[in-house]
């Protein structure tokens, strides 16, 4: 099975994406430590901008681009479709975490936040995008199970 299944010809800078993931991990840590649903609401909007729009207004992406330039990190281009799908999952995950915090379901919110933290750390440190793997498996099953 091919683990790179682009839907479009869009490409993204893997280095910037990994820096974004690192920033998501830091924000998630703040959320867990302070039970702060506002940080998750920020992530809902930032993930949403990157998932459903061009991402040009994403605060985390803008910061990551500047950090990549400041540290002269070499761009490495990758398929953007799986990354957008992963951002969609991040948006949904963040929304659930924020709602659970608002409803005072602290334990469930913390567990989901730790899971999201693990995914962000895997992406930022090891370039392992769990959402991209889910996307690839989804594309595989969609292609092999037509209606």
Automatic annotation (TrEMBL):
Keywords: Membrane, Transmembrane, Transmembrane helix. InterPro entries: DUF4395 (IPR025508). The chain crosses the membrane at residues 16-35, 85-105, 111-138. This is DUF4395 domain-containing protein. Coiled coil: none annotated. It holds the Pfam family DUF4395. Residues 13-138 form the DUF4395 domain. The keyword Chloroplast does not apply.
């Amino acid at each position: 099975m091919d683990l790179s299944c682009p839907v479009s010809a869009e490409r993204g800078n893997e280095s910037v994406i990994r820096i974004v993931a690192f920033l998501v991990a830091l924000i998630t840590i703040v959320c867990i430590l302070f039970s702060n649903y506002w940080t998750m609401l920020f992530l809902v909007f930032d993930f949403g901008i990157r998932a459903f729009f061009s991402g040009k207004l994403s605060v985390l992406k803008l910061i990551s681009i500047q950090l990549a330039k400041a540290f002269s990190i070499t761009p490495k281009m990758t398929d953007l479709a799986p990354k957008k799908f992963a951002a969609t999952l991040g948006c949904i995950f963040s929304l659930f975490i924020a709602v659970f915090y608002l409803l005072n379901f602290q334990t469930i919110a913390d567990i989901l936040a730790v899971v999201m933290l693990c995914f962000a750390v895997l992406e930022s440190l090891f370039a392992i995008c769990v959402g991209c793997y889910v996307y690839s498996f989804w594309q595989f099953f969609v292609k092999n199970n037509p209606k």
